Amino acid sequence: MTFTLARRTQRMNSSAIREILKVTERPGVLSMAGGLPAPESFPIEALRWACDQVLSTQGAAALQYATTEGLPPLREWIARRLSQGAWQVEASQVLITTGSQQGLDLVGKVMLDEGSPVLVEQPTYLGALQAFAPYEPVFKTWASDAMGPLPQALSKAEPARLAYLVPSFQNPSGHGIADARRREIALQAQQSNTPVVEDNPYGELWFDTPPPPPLAAHAPEQVIYLGSFSKVLAPGLRVGFIVTPSGQHPSALALRAKLLQAKQAADLHTPALNQRIIMQLLDSGFDLDGHLDTVRARYRDQRDAMASALAQHLPRGCTWQLPQGGMFFWVMCPDRIDTLQRLPLALDAGVAYVPGASFYAGSAPGRSNTLRLSFVTLSPAQIDEAVARLACCLH
Ligand SMILES: Cc1ncc(COP(=O)(O)O)c(C=O)c1O
After folding, report:
1. Pick from 258, 283, 308: which residue ends a domain?
2. CA 34 to centroid of ligand 1, rounded, Å
3. DSSP structure string for 116-133
4. Given ligand 1 and candidates 124, 130, 171, 267, which is best to mutate, with the most ligand atoms within 8 Å of its CB?
5. What is the mean pLDDT of residues 60-81?
6. Tens digits of per-residue pLDDT, 199-257?
């Protein structure tokens, strides 16, 4: 028997990160590879209670098929939370997704054709490249300077089908885009009529000051915003959301309708049980902001531990910036160091990281001297040991 696979499967790759994660399960390996939120930060007791409440008081509804859009009170809660500042979101704009990863896939499915130009930062989130690639777009480098992606790259003359960015504590670079640049990008998106996908799973994980308002606040009719409970509560819940562009323009309404149909075809709806557990938690006086403060304090300590370890151990010529939030350090090594080549050496030494080349798209030459380190999974003492082991492999 031979199976003929669809052409699009040629564009599917297993994520380099997931492959590395398999190896990091070897005993003794200190892994800074996975972007796994600290398990100690999961509100397990509160979720156990909420789960129990849901099953005892609304068990039948929680276990029944549900609407594709998502649980109405949860959509309302999300709209209210996002509307605290300059951006006004209505519940009707919110589509609950199975993680924001599904949001990326749905956007790709309804917006991309073969050859559609998609602007991406370099480096960018690998999972977005994986989600978009099967729809056969052409990835284009979104040119940038020290302040982030350049607004003028959104061009009317050479329109991108969409432009994708992670403006707060990006994965993998850890960088954030300041308010002025966000406003310029939003303005240029309006003037060039370019749809922007703003992926914001890390916005709540700030250490000193919250990030500026999202781009969507400045261009609500242009931006497709993705959010998630993965880094706020727990990724295993697989609950995220898309905020579709505002306004009653026929194309905005068509986009919303098509995203809904695509989701219906993909999984009918995101697990109703999980949505109800989250809603029960949020409704029952659970102090989400207090919980986030605890997570931020933990991650800030781990970030500081990694900053000291990097300064103490890494060889001269390695550079990095201090992330102001999120989960990652992005390290630039001297040109002669190929971090993919050195990975087996590192694994033998009992340490894992993600080589940076995987985060570059299309024809852009991947910077083979870069690597991503997550600081949220190991304790400060383990971080010091892990970075010391890494340094030996880079010397
Ligand atoms: C930038 C970015 N977007 C989206 C996701 C997907 O998150 P989830 O599907 O858990 O919401 C991740 C996960 O690490 C991410 O880093």
Report:
1. 283
2. 12
3. -EEEE-SS--HHHHHHHG
4. 171
5. 98
6. 999 999 999 999 999 999 999 999 999 999 999 999 999 999 999 999 899 999 999 99
CATH number of the domain residue 345 falls in = 3.90.1150.10
User: Can you give the residue range of the structural domain that contains 154?
Assistant: 44-283
User: How many whole angstroms from 126 Cα to the centroid of ligand 1?
Assistant: 10
Ligand 1 proximal residues by C-beta, below 6 Å: 35, 99-101, 125, 127, 166, 171, 199, 201, 228, 230, 235, 240
Hey, which residues does 223 pair with through a beta bridge? 196
How many domains does the chain divide into? 2
The pair of three-digit structure tokens given for residue 77, joined into one six-digit string: 């809660």
Query: How far is the first Cα of the chain from the last one, in angstroms, to the nearest whole number?
Result: 51
The rounded distance, in Å, linking the Cα atoms of 226 and 244 is 9
| 162 in the same domain as 48 | yes
Distance of CA 344 to the CA centre of its chain: 27
Radius of gyration from C-alpha coordinates of the chain: 21
